[in-house]
Amino acid sequence: MPEADISVLLKEKRIFKPSQKLVSESNVKKWMDKQGIRSYEELMKKSQDTEWFWGEAAKEFVEWYSPPKKVLDWKLPYSNWFVGAKYNIVHDAVDRHAKRHPDKVAYYFEGEPGDRRKMTYKELSDEVCRLANALKKLGLKRGDRVSIYLPMILELPVAMLACAKIGVAHSVVFSGFSSLALADRINDCGARVLITCDTFWRRGKTVALKAAADEAARQAPSIEHVVVVKRTGENIPWTNGRDLSYQDITANESTACETEKMEANDLLYILYTSGTTGKPKGVMQRHGGYAVNIALTLSWVFDLKDNDIWWGAADAGWVTGHSYIVYAPLILGTTSIIYEGAPDWPEADRWWDIIENYKVTVFYTSPTAIRMFMKLGTEWVKKHDLSSLRLLGSVGEPINPEAWIWYQLNIGGGRCQIMDTWWQTETGAFAIAPLPISELKPGSAVRPLPGMAADIYTDEGKRAPAETGGNLVLLSPWPAMLGGLYKNPEKYQETYWAKYPGVYLTGDIGRIDADGYYWVQGRADDVLKVSGHRLSNSELESSLVSHMSVSEAAVIGKPHELKGESIVAFVILKKGIEVSEPLRKELREHVGKEIGKIAMPDEVWFVADLPKTRSGKIMRRVIRKKVIGEPVGDISTLMNPEAVAELDKAK
Ligand code: WT7
C-alpha cells in the first residue's frame, strides 16, 4: 500500500451509517421482518443454517419447473444444490418477465459513437428465441458448448441466454483477449460454434474482432460455424459455408422457442480465469444454485426495486458481467444499462453523462476506474447532475480509503453508501459485502453475507486472531460455488481444497478487525490484479519465453497508482541476442498479441540472471521486494544469491 493511502486509512476513522430510510425500506430488512429476525446479528446467526437459509431464499427468487427434493448434497469438495429440481435460469431471467411485464425495458444500450437502442423484456425474449431456434438448426443440442467473443452490445446477453435456453453451455471470452487466447479456450471446451461480430467501437476507432475470430477458428478444429453479428457494417473477411450472418439466420425464425427443462445442477457456463499456472482454468457454473445466489445478493446488497436503473459498468466477458449484468438483474426484472465503449471517450465525462441521461440509480464499478476519474479531476463530474444515484458499488480489487471517500463525496454526493463487494469468478456471487443495514468503514468489504461462512486462517490452519493477517477461507458451501474446473478435477482439488482439509482457499490474504470487519489485502499466490483483471504471472512468463529471443522470464506486479498493479517483466535473452529498444517493444507487443492488450508488460528489463531456489524455481517474491525497494530478507538458501544484486544492473 503506498504511504499516502496508509495515512488516509489511519486518519479515516469515520463510520458511515445508513440512513433510517435506507434501512427501513431495504429488501433485506423486509425479509427479516417477514421471518421475525430483529437484528443483523440474529440474521447472521440464523443464516448459518445454510440449508434452511438457501431453501428460504429459493422460494423468494426462483420458480422451478418441478421443486427440489433436497436443498444441498455436499460431497466434499463438490456441492449439488436444489437436487432433483427441474429448472432453467432463462425461465426466471426472460420467459416470466416477457409474460408479466412485456413492455418493461430490460436494457438501454448506448454505443460508443452515441447510437442508442432499448430492448424490452418482450423484445429480449423474441430475440433470444430467434437465435435459439437458429442455433438448433445448426445442430446444437443440450450438452454442447458454444464460444462467444463479443463486445458490450445487446447481442452478447442475447447469445448467452439463447445458449442457456436450449441447454448449451456458453463460454464467453473477453473481446480484449487475443486470437490465441480465444483459440486456447475454444479448444479446451470443444465449442462447435463461435459467435462474434464484424468490428466494434473503442476510442473512436473500430476493433477488428472478426479477423481475430478467424485466426482463432483456424486453430480450433471443433468450430463448425462462425456466427457474425453486424455491429458496424464494416467490410470483413468471409468464409463461405462456415460463416453465417447473425442477422440473416435469425431474421425469419420464430419468436417462440421452448425453454429446455434442465436439472438444477446441469452446466450453465464455463468461464476461463487465470490461476497460478500458465493454463487458464474453466470455472463451471450451473443453473439452479447460481440463480438463487446471484438474485439474492443483488437484491439484498444493491437493494434493487422495480423502478431502479442499474448500471454495472463492467464487461460481460468477466464474471461481474455474467452474474450482475446478465443473469441477476434479469432474474430480478431490472432495467439495466449496457455501454459499448471507453469510459473517457470522447471526453472524461462520458460515464457521468450516461448516469445523468438515463437517471441511473445504482452504479457499480471498479477501484481502478474510480482512481482514474479521481486523477481526471472533479470538474468533469460537476458538469453533470448525478442526483438520481442512491447507492454505489465497487469490485475487483481492494479499494483504498482515499478512493472510497472520493467516490462517496464526488459521485455519491455524500449521500450514497458504498457497497464494496468481495467475490471471485469461483464464488459466482458476492461473498463478503455490506448490506444496506450495515455501517461502513471505508476500505472494508464489511462482513460475509448471510448464508456465507468465512474466516482468516494462519498457515497452520488455525483461526488468526483479530487484526492478524492470514489466508481468507470459506468454511461452508454456497449455492453459486463453482461446480469444479472443466475437465480438470485434479486442479480443482489442488487449487482450492489442498491447503486446509474441507475448507475452501480463496487465494487472498486479509485480516478481520476487532469489530469483525474484513479487510482483504490482495492475492497470496502468483496472480496479478491489473485494473481488477486477473492475470497469471506464469501465463505471462510462458508467453515471453515463447518468443524466439527469450530464454527465461520472471513477471511480477508492482503497485500502481491507477491500475492497482503494473506488470514488470525481467527477461534473460538467448545467447547471441543483443539488448535493444526495438526488441523491448517487440516483447511487449508479443505478449499483447498472445494474451491481449491488458497483459502487455509496462516494463521489460533485460538481465543476465534471475534469483532461483535450489530446485530451479524463479523467486518472484525476492524480485518483487527488490523492485518495490523492500528488504529482500534471507537469500542464503537461493541457488544463486548473487543474482539478486545482478537485478540492479538490469537494462
Ligand atoms: C479476485 C477475484 C469478482 C469479480 C471481479 C474479479 C479480488 C475482487 C474484491 C474486493 C478486494 C477483491 C480478489 C479476488 N477482489 N473483489 N471487493 N476487495 N479484493 O473476479 O477475476 O475472479 O478475481 O479479485 O483478489 O480473489 P476475479
Summarize the structure.
The protein has 651 residues and is α/β, with parallel strands linked by helices. The protein has 22 helices and 29 strands.
Describe it.
The protein is 33% helix and 23% strand. Helix 9 crosses helix 10 (209-218). A hairpin with a 5-residue loop joins strand 23 and strand 24 (518-523). The mean pLDDT is 95. The chain contains 22 helices and 29 strands. It has a seven-stranded mixed beta sheet, sandwiched between helices. It has a five-stranded parallel beta sheet with strand order 7-6-8-11-12, with helices on both faces. The chain is an alpha/beta fold. It is globular, with a radius of gyration of 24 Å.
Reconstruct the topology from this structure:
Blueprint: H1 3-11, H2 20-25, H3 27-35, H4 40-46, H5 50-61, E1 70-75, E2 78-83, E3 86-87, H6 89-100, E4 105-110, E5 116-120, H7 121-137, E6 145-148, H8 155-165, E7 169-172, H9 179-189, E8 193-197, E9 200-202, E10 205-207, H10 209-218, E11 225-229, E12 243-245, H11 246-251, E13 262-263, E14 267-273, E15 281-286, H12 287-301, E16 309-312, H13 319-331, E17 335-339, H14 350-358, E18 362-365, H15 367-376, H16 379-382, E19 391-395, H17 401-411, E20 417-421, E21 454-457, E22 470-474, H18 489-497, E23 504-512, E24 518-523, E25 527-530, E26 533-536, H19 537-545, E27 550-560, E28 564-573, H20 581-594, E29 603-606, H21 620-628, H22 642-646
Parallel strand pairs: 4-17, 6-7, 6-8, 8-11, 11-12, 16-17, 16-18, 18-19, 19-20, 28-29
Antiparallel strand pairs: 1-2, 3-13, 4-5, 9-10, 14-15, 21-22, 22-23, 23-24, 25-26, 27-28
Helix pairs in contact: 5-12, 6-7, 6-8, 6-13, 7-8, 9-10, 12-13, 15-17
Bound molecules: 5'-O-[(S)-butoxy(hydroxy)phosphoryl]adenosine.
